[in-house]
Design brief:
With 177 residues, the chain is of the alpha/beta class. It has a single domain, classed as 3-Layer(aba) Sandwich (Rossmann fold), CATH 3.40.50.720. Helices cover 44% and strands 11% of the residues. A four-stranded parallel β-sheet has the order 1-2-3-4, with helices on both faces. Helix 1 packs parallel to helix 2 and helix 2 runs parallel beside helix 3. The chain is globular, with a radius of gyration of 17 Å. It starts with 7 loop residues before the first helix and ends with a strand. The mean pLDDT is 95.
Length: 177
């Protein structure tokens, strides 16, 4: 699905297809992100702002909202968002990316609280730390990517939150570093 241009209708159609094929949904993992162009807020490009907010906040919000009925049908389901250190402590020049990371942290807490009465469905997040990704390379072009951990090295935190062992956690972000 093209997160940049997806509409609520697109998410609804996706959920309908999943429902026909699976009946329910056991997990939803959000791991897509758009960096934008690091810049002071004063000069932040409004077109970039819209793109970053669309991919980093609107898309996970709308996809989660659309998937909730299918997730509630599962015997044990988990929603896992990807967070960032700039969503826990603001840093200059991170602009819309940082703002969205803060918003995702809030979404995790709010949705976790709302789902408190549904013990079979939990929502949490992973702050993976420094990982060798395209987004990291774009944010830190002078950094040697070979010195960074591969994405596979942080998967244990995601797998833990998706699995039954994390049943007691809800509304929290786990750091994998």
């Amino acid at each position: 699905m093209n997160l940049m241009g997806a509409t609520p209708t697109d998410y609804g159609e996706l959920v309908e297809r999943v429902e026909v094929e699976l009946g329910c949904l056991d997990g939803l993992l959000h791991a897509s992100a758009e960096l934008g162009i690091p810049s002071p807020i004063e000069y932040y490009d409004v077109v970039q702002l819209a793109k970053v907010i669309q991919v980093n906040l609107h898309a996970p919000f709308l996809l989660t909202r659309a998937c909730l009925p299918l997730l509630k049908r599962a015997k044990d389901a988990s929603i896992v968002f990807t967070s960032s250190d700039v969503g826990r402590r603001g840093r200059a020049y991170w602009g819309a990316y940082g703002v969205c990371a803060f918003a995702i942290e809030g979404l995790i807490q709010i949705l976790g609280d709302e789902l408190e009465s549904s013990p079979h469905l939990r929502v949490n997040g992973v702050a993976p730390g420094i990982v060798r990704t395209r987004l990291r390379a774009a944010a830190y072009p002078g950094e040697d990517p070979m010195s960074l951990p591969e994405p596979e090295e942080v998967m244990s935190a995601y797998l833990f939150l998706m699995g039954k062992d994390s049943h007691s956690l809800n509304g929290v972000v786990v750091a994998s570093y």
